[in-house]
């Protein structure tokens, strides 16, 4: 049985630094990639994910779905065999999500906006 060719992924963080390249099987799910990324996250970063759900991966301008595999997400156009694929990483900690949701609720309660048609 022939061996699967591993896919090399590099992850670009919010500050322009990179993690990787790391090798993954094409059968690995995006969730598995996110879990490894959390484990490999540098300790010196101010913003760090606590879980895989805190991360969004973007490849070729598309947010990758957790249930998809690396093989399904890689774009064959412009890729060279054995090349490294760069993915962008967006970190949205669950605490920030909760705070953002609260601010929206407060703004809706105040009802400051009004319109006048003359």
Features:
118 residues; 27% helix; globular; five-stranded mixed β-sheet; alpha+beta
Description:
- The chain is α+β, with helices and mostly antiparallel strands and 118 residues long.
- Helix content is 27%, strand content 24%.
- It contains three helices and five strands.
- It has helices spanning 30-40, 70-73, 94-110, and strands at 7-12, 18-24, 55-59, 62-63, 84-91.
- A five-stranded mixed β-sheet has the order 2-1-5-3-4.
- Strand 3 (55-59) and strand 4 form a beta hairpin.
- The protein is globular and about 75 Å long.
Helix and strand layout, with pairings?
Blueprint: E1 7-12, E2 18-24, H1 30-40, E3 55-59, E4 62-63, H2 70-73, E5 84-91, H3 94-110
Parallel strand pairs: 1-5
Antiparallel strand pairs: 1-2, 3-4, 3-5
Short overview:
This protein is α+β, with helices and mostly antiparallel strands and 118 residues long. It is built from 3 helices and 5 strands, in the order E-E-H-E-E-H-E-H.
The helix fraction, in percent, is 25-40%
The helix tally amounts to: 3
Radius of gyration: 19 Å
Q: How much of the residues is beta strand, in percent? A: 15-25%
The major pleated sheet works out as:
5 strands, mixed
Strands across the major sheet, in which order? 2-1-5-3-4
Shape: globular
Alpha-beta classification: alpha+beta
Query: What is the average per-residue confidence, as pLDDT, rounded to a whole number?
Result: 77
Number of strands: 5
Give the helices and strands as they follow along the chain: EEHEEHEH
Q: Alpha-carbon distance between the termini?
A: 77 Å
Low-confidence stretches: none
């Amino acid at each position: 049985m022939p061996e699967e060719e591993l896919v090399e992924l590099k992850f670009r963080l919010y500050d322009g630094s990179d993690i990787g390249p790391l090798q993954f099987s094409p059968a690995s799910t995006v969730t598995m990639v996110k879990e490894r990324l959390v484990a490999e996250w540098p300790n010196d970063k101010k913003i760090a994910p606590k879980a895989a759900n805190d991360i969004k991966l973007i490849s070729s301008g598309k947010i990758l779905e957790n249930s998809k595999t690396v093989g399904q997400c890689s774009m064959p156009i412009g890729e060279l065999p054995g090349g490294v694929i760069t993915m962008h990483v967006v970190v949205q900690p669950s605490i920030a999500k909760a705070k953002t949701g609260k601010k929206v609720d407060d703004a809706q309660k105040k009802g400051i906006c009004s319109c006048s048609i003359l």
